[in-house]
Amino acid sequence: MELDNLKSLWNKEDVSETPEISPEKQRQLHHPLERIRKNMRYEFWSTVILMPFILIGIWFFPLPFRFNLYIEILVICMTLVTAFFFSKFFKLYKEISNPALGTLDSLKDLLHQFDLNKQYYLSFYLSFVPFFVCEMIIVIESIPHTHQYTNGYLTLVFIGSVVFGLSTIYFIGNWWFKHFYGKYIEKIEILVEEMKK
Q1: What stretches pass through the bilayer (predicted)?
Q2: pLDDT tens across 8-23, in order?
């Protein structure tokens, strides 16, 4: 008896498909998505152009061989880390280009991808902490040891430089993400919330 009731309720239930996004909302979504794509292209190409200039700059400075070698290895490692994160970045770029963003569920999925990308951004900047610390160690170790620099002084310079550098990386990273992506993601979130109502 109960099974028959459940079957009849199931059959009566109107299972509708995922709501489609109206053409008007798609036009509203187009601008923030296009701005995000444009900013992603800008970030990618500026990084691709910047890396060779950094390596060339290191080669042409008259630095001691060991110092030069260590810095080159660090820059190459940073390039590999950047390439890994750009591979994740490229997946999101392709997702934004997907013409199948016609349903509310696909937009929710895209917002989830944006959230993941924000976490990748945070991880990207955190991954530069060891590189920055290593560069500071190399710089301090390459300072000629004289009596005017005491161990306490070098320690303060090292800690101060690391704290200043990491704070700068944190604030620039936050500003960069909010300026180039965050404000457009917020517009998309607002549109998704409006569509849910």
Answers
A1: 42-61, 67-86, 120-140, 152-177
A2: 655 554 444 455 666 6
For residues 101-137, one letter each, b for 16 or more C-beta atoms within 10 angstroms of the residue's C-beta and e for the rest, the string is bbeeeebeebeeebeebeebbeebbeebeeebeebbe
Distance CA 27, CA 22 (A): 9
Provide CB contacts within 8 A for 124, sequence distance 6+: 81, 82, 85, 173
Closest CA to 78 of 28, 128, 123: 128
Who's near 129: CB < 8 A, 6+ residues apart? 166, 169
Query: What are the residue boundaries of the structural domains of the chain, listed by start?
Result: 23-196
Measure the CA–CA gap between 104 and 193, rounded to whole angstroms: 10
Q: How large is the average pLDDT for residues 38-67?
A: 83
| CA distance readout (Å), 143 to 3, 63, 148, 173, 190 | 83, 12, 12, 30, 54
pTM: 0.71
Q: Which of 17, 120, 131, 10 is nearest to 75 (CA)?
A: 131
Residue 103 phi, psi dihedral angles, 5° rounding = -120, 160
DSSP state of 64: -
For 153, the 3-state DSSP assignment is: helix
Label residues 156-178 b or e (16+ Cβ within 10 Å = b): eeeeebbeebbeeeeeebeeebe
